Amino acid sequence: MSLYRLIYSSTAHPELTPQDLKEILAVSEKNNSENGITGLLCYGNQTFLQILEGEWDEVNKTYHRIAQDERHHTPRLIECLPISCRAFEVWSMQAITLNEFSTEQVKTLILKHSGTVKLRPELMRPDQCLNFLLDVAKIYQLSDNFYLDL
Ligand code: FAD
């Protein structure tokens, strides 16, 4: 079985609500755990940056389903390649909004991985997007929210 990692970004619908995000996360956790998919969905600056890891067919089907969702638009495929192991094996999907972090943390994180001060994945290389998401997960796991979720 070949394991793949897919990263994409998209722009949120202007009327996206926190409730929408909750519903997206709930359906994602359910579907992804049934389909052997793990990953992270990061939201900030009206932008989604998501990583999906899993068997090729499942990643492919999930991405195409997500791409048709009207709660966001202009999906932009950043990377899709075979990997030897998962980086987000603890989460069938976790949604992290950058609002959960302090302004200083967000600024530092974005500056570390990009040339901009706001989240603009379209200006980032695939390795920068991956490292950004890994750092987001690391900070989240150290925060109180992680313990509340368990
Ligand atoms: P249905 O819920 O019947 O969906 C039917 C259609 O309506 C689909 O086109 C669906 O995308 C769309 N839709 C559903 N609810 C709404 C709504 N409230 N407003 C507008 N359109 C709606 N799903 C996963 O399984 N795994 C993921 O990792 C995942 N990540 C996502 C990330 C983002 C940024 C977004 C926006 C959605 C994500 N989803 C994810 C949800 C996904 O797009 C589908 O809604 C979901 O998988 C169920 O699809 P369905 O066709 O089986 O069911």
If you had to describe this structure to a student in words, what would you say it looks like?
Strands 4-1-3-2-5 form a five-stranded mixed β-sheet, with helices on both faces. The longest helix has 18 residues, at 18-35. A hairpin with a 2-residue loop joins β2 (38-44) and β3. α3 runs antiparallel to α4 (126-142). It is built from five helices and five strands; from the N terminus they run βαββαββααα. The chain has 150 residues and is an alpha+beta fold. It binds flavin-adenine dinucleotide.
Mean pLDDT over the full residue set: 93
Total helical segments: 5
Radius of gyration: 14 Å
Helix content: 40-55%
Beta-strand level of the residues, as a percent range? 25-35%
Residue ranges: pLDDT <50 for 5 or more in a row?
none
How many beta-strand elements?
Answer: 5
Alpha-carbon distance between the two ends: 30 Å
Q: Helices and strands in order, then pairings?
A:
Elements: E1 3-12, H1 18-35, E2 38-44, E3 47-55, H2 56-67, E4 72-82, E5 94-97, H3 103-113, H4 126-142, H5 144-149
Parallel strand pairs: 2-5
Antiparallel strand pairs: 1-3, 1-4, 2-3
Helix pairs in contact: 3-4
Bound molecules: flavin-adenine dinucleotide (FAD).
The site of flavin-adenine dinucleotide has 17 residues, from helix 1, strand 3 and helix 2.
